Amino acid sequence: MVRVSRSVWIWLVCVALSILAVDEASAEPATLVFLNNVPAAVTFNDGDSFRVLEGPNTGSKARLAGFNTLESHGPVHQWGGWHYKELYALAKMATLNARRGVWHCESKDLAADGYGRILWYCLDLAEDQIRHGFAHAMTVSDEPANPRLLAAQHDAIRHRRGMWAKGVPTYVLTSIHSADEGFGKKTYNRLVNTVDGHSKRWYHNAIFSECQDVCHHPTELPMNEAYRVVSELRADAAVAPYVRGIDDILVALSVNTFIQNGFVPKIFGDNAKVQAALESMKSKGRFASVRSIKGACAIHVDFKRRYVRPKPACLQW
Question: pTM for the full model?
Answer without folding.
Answer: 0.90
